[in-house]
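User: Predict structure, ligand adenosine monophosphate.
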Amino acid sequence: MSRANCLFCRIADRTQSADIVAEADRLIAFKDIRPQAPTHLLIVPTEHIPSIADVTDTHTVLLGQAIHLANRLARQYQLVPGGYRVVVNCGAGAGQTIWHLHWHLLGGRTMAWPPG
Ligand code: AMP
Ligand code: ZN
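Assistant: Predicted complex:
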């Protein structure tokens, strides 16, 4: 898939609009268009990586940076100490619908476990 055909590449390239809340060196964060919690953000690498199953040794630092950004946004959106969830869906059976790696940051309500 080319960047032009990938929704999250297009958002990262600013050719598709989104409600962007943070930008970092290799990451962007924006509001989910169909929020599943009062706060529902997506943390997205600017590089096109189809799923978390596709990460390699070259992405090790990026993965840490994504978690640091999730934590920073959780504090910014007052999800601490109430609690928040950082989720990656990998594969259609796990609910992945966009084939560009992203972390969901969800908070602002009580979460159930196990997830559906
Ligand atoms: P997943 O199902 O884990 O692949 O997550 C994809 C997420 O992207 C879903 O929560 C969608 O609501 C969200 N989404 C789809 N299109 C957009 C968009 N244009 N802007 C922001 N979020 C989107
Ligand atoms: Zn992409």
